[in-house]
TrEMBL record:
GO terms for molecular function: dUTP diphosphatase activity; magnesium ion binding. Keywords: Hydrolase, Magnesium, Metal-binding, Nucleotide metabolism. Belongs to the dUTPase family. Coiled coil: none annotated. InterPro entries: dUTPase (IPR008181), dUTPase-like (IPR029054), dUTPase-like_sf (IPR036157), dUTPase_trimeric (IPR033704). Substrate binds at R63, S64, G65, N76, T80, I81, D82. It is an enzyme of class 3 (hydrolase). Its EC number is 3.6.1.23. This enzyme is involved in nucleotide metabolism: it produces dUMP, the immediate precursor of thymidine nucleotides and it decreases the intracellular concentration of dUTP so that uracil cannot be incorporated into DNA. The gene is dut. This is Deoxyuridine 5'-triphosphate nucleotidohydrolase. Its cofactor is Mg(2+).
Amino acid sequence: MQIPVINRSRHPLPAYQTAHAAGLDVRANLTEPVTLKPLQRALIPTGLFMEIPVGYEVQVRPRSGLAYKHGITIVNSPGTIDADYRGELMVLLVNLSDTVFVVQDGERIAQLIVARHETITWELAEVLSETVRGAGGYGSTGVQ
């Protein structure tokens, strides 16, 4: 699959880091470092603009290394970039650690996953089919 992209950053396009990686690492495009205090969040620009095919989305997910080593993750994870969006890809980072973290220009801040999705229509109903789980919600399938 090919996705048209405009790269207005000073950095390479998002790339797979290994042969079998699902996500493409995307980099911060900053004129100056961004400091994230504990529990602070910030929109980080990437300098990328995409034309995603209809029927697909690009999911923006945290990088496991940043999450594990520094407590940096994405607020709305996974974030969704819709096929009709033409603005700059921005990544909403949050610092869940108890120490300050500085985002540097060119740093790999998130990963992108291209995923197919369905468009549905609702079918109004009065009754739903029965299942073993039924209406059991949070924690209902745990050990009893």
